[in-house]
Amino acid sequence: MNSRIGQDRRDRLPDIAVYVLLIFGLAAVLLPLFYILGTSFAPEKEYLTRGFFLLPKQWSLEGYRYLLGNPGFLSAVSHAAEITVIGTAINMLLTTLMAYGLSKKQLKGRSVVNGMVLFTLLFSGGTIPTYLVVKGLGLVNSYWALWLTSAIAPFHLIVMRGFFQAVPAELEEAARMDGSGEWRLLWSVIVPLSLPAIATFTLFYAVQHWNTYFAAILYINDSSRWPLQVFLRQMLIEDDTNVGRSLAETVHYTPAAKMAAIVLTALPLLAVFPFLQKYFNKGVLLGSIKG
């Protein structure tokens, strides 16, 4: 009897170890989030005196009021929204059209184009050649430099192509017998059946544009046109760059304002993600298997 109990305990050890690791992992993720959220509602004096804390003793909306009244922050939000909405629309339109074309086995040169797509998935042209092309096209300081240089993601294209190939050929034949052309077949039959993949990659593209940072620094020289992530970075390091400035030129962002900026920056994505989460496994995994 004792040996059986001891065996049961030994059998539970791997499960216990997994739960302990999960608890530590969850704490490592949640503690910084609670720290940022708590600091965003704390007055500056409490932050300077208490140091690390998760919940403030005094709650204040000073940081959020300052940000929502800051023209620079509001302008950065509007720029980020413009880049995200238009950029995602361009991404999905071009990715859908190209994936649909490459899903047709009768397309001449299909294998060559597929090979080129796979090559760009493994290798890139590099930052300097890409910048020279953008500059040669006169797109520097234009949002088109952000949209066109990331118009089609090869991985998204390959997975979406797999989704389109998984559509039963009988449905396409039936639609053609009813008089549907390629455009009507695509938008009325193929796209509705591929909504999981489309919703998934729409969110992927939107997150990519909302979080754009390096490309914006590289191609956008006018600071008044910087998107949200670049403004957030400048805001977080602003106090370090104030050295040597006069008091009139100094811009001081309180810790609450900095943390509030992080919260407000992440809030749109956190609000949208739960509604599209159910498409992730179905969209990516099915497309990968069928492709």
Description:
With 291 residues, the chain is an all-alpha fold. The protein has two domains: 2-60; 70-290, MetI-like fold. The chain has 16 helices and no strands. It has helices at residues 2-40, 44-50, 62-68, 71-102, 110-122, 127-136, 144-148, 154-165, 169-177, 182-193, 195-210, 214-219, 228-236, 238-241, 255-276, 278-290. The longest helix is centred in the N-terminal third of the chain and has 39 residues, at 2-40. The radius of gyration is 25 Å and the shape is globular. The termini are far apart. The model is unreliable at 240-250 and 287-291 (pLDDT under 50). The chain crosses the membrane at residues 16-37, 76-100, 112-132, 144-164, 185-207, 256-276. One of its GO terms (cellular component) is plasma membrane.
- Tell me the CATH architecture of the largest domain: Orthogonal Bundle
| Average predicted local confidence, pLDDT | 81
Q: What string gives the helices and strands in order? A: HHHHHHHHHHHHHHHH
What's the domain count? 2
Rg, please?
25 Å
* Major sheet details: none
β-strand number: 0
Distance between the termini: 54 Å
- Poorly predicted regions are 240-250, 287-291
Q: Supply the CATH superfamily name of the largest domain.
A: MetI-like
Strand content: under 5%
Structural class of the secondary structure composition?
mainly alpha
Which topology of the largest domain does CATH recognise? MetI-like fold
Helix fraction, binned, reads: over 70%
**DSSP helical segment count:** 16
The level 1 CATH classification of the largest domain is: Mainly Alpha
3D shape: globular
